[in-house]
Amino acid sequence: MKNIMTSLCLALFIISASVTITLNFRPLYYHDISALKIEETSGFSKNIIKKNYDELIDYNQFFHSGKLKLTMPMSREGRIHFEDVKRIFDTIEIACIITLILSCYLVTTQIRKRDLRFLKISSIITILLPTIAGIMTAVNWEAVFIMFHKIMFRNDYWLFDEALDPVITILPDTFFLQCAVMIILLILSGSLLCILFRSFFHHKFMIYLLLQFIYMRNNSNQSVLICKIIQHTDCLISRYIIQRPESFINKHCINLDTTRLRLDFILSLIHI
To answer: Taking 60 as the threshold, does the pLDDT of residue 236 lie above it?
Structure first.
């Protein structure tokens, strides 16, 4: 049960963190201003585009308070839509913080128990979900985009009118597609890290032995030290496993032959 809880927490953290990182990765949009020719398609200057985009990102931060202040005209429906978007991102950011704290505790507990099965489950979850999303996106991005908005929003305010909400002209569909691809790649990267960590943990003892062997070849003193450790171990075995029982037998004057006969008699009764 604890493995499943740890797996789900870790998977949710990877997913929410991927979304949060993508939201705050502004260089992607700055590159797209030129790459997608947003200045030409929107009719706004680069400075105005960047200023309004930065305002949108700042507004969607969890600790941001106050209203959205764009330099472009905005309808009532458009403002309501951005408020809905902020609530979604706030929820994701809260989930990211909570799952991070829970994951740190649960993962540490499982590692101390040397139980890493949760990493396998987390990697499976974080491979399946982005793979399915990636296939759907590749087949029909427009249908996925529309389906996402219908699921996430209770109204149709996301259908902007360029005349009333010109901000939509600086947010082309291609940019959202790139964001979706980035989220998928980040989730898959998180899954890969889970697989690598699990593999490393299982093989770290072999790696340790290999490093010790390499070090011993380059340092003859290390070989002497290893020999001393082995000799000390032999002494401990001789003292506690061999000498202690012998002293106990001698102290209590135990007759081994008589004891053996009694044991043989008890065993014969059991077999009967």
So the answer is: no
